[in-house]
Amino acid sequence: MKLIYTILLSLFISFSFAQDLNQLDSNGERHGNWKKNFEDTKVLRYEGTFDHGKEVGTFKFYKNINGQAILTATRTFNSDTDLAQVKFYSSTKHLISEGQMRGKTYVGRWVYYHNKSKQIMTQEFYNNKGELEGEKRTYYLSGKMAKKENYVGGVLNGESRSFSETEKLISVFNYTNNELHGPAKIYDTKGDLQMEGVYQKDRRHGLWKFYENGKLKEEKDLTRRSNNPVKKRL
């Protein structure tokens, strides 16, 4: 008797829950718990809760992989703002990246993680237009900094520095509107200067100096854009 009662209760709860799913309010807005499947399948596409057409709480989104619903993203909505805290996941359930979004626009700080690791790979910032803005940092799996660069309005501007995993400076470049422009220096793995010069609009320009074992070895005047720049060996 208890078994029959338990089965009937389970069926009643399931039926009641199903009745509460995917409802519309009097204005035709989605309201309450919603679940949607991929078209012509029984594979879950997303699930979450609406409050008279507005998303509230945490929504979960899935991929259809071989007929299985695999979590691909979550969005947690804040009733006080129009921003959602978003997390993206790999098919192996590892966190790929996280940050805030306004609709489909990235806003504020975003971090990306190394594969199957909690170690940050990249940290970057977005303005309200969804453009990269400010300092972007890239890290090795060890946590050591690999690169530091600056964005303004979605394009590279200012100084960019790269480092080896042993924290040696590898290069220093300058950018203007996404083009190499200004002083540049490149170092070897020991941290000794290998070459230095100036870029103009993505091309080497003027006098470039080349070093060996820390000593000046050669100079090239690249002012004339020809295949045979003037060389001066020292």
Automatic annotation (TrEMBL):
Keyword Signal: yes
SUPFAM superfamilies, per the entry: Histone H3 K4-specific methyltransferase SET7/9 N-terminal domain
Taxonomy, superkingdom: Bacteria
Keywords attached to this entry: Signal
One Pfam family linked to the record: MORN_2
Signal peptide start-end: 1-18
Protein name (Swiss-Prot/TrEMBL): Toxin-antitoxin system YwqK family antitoxin
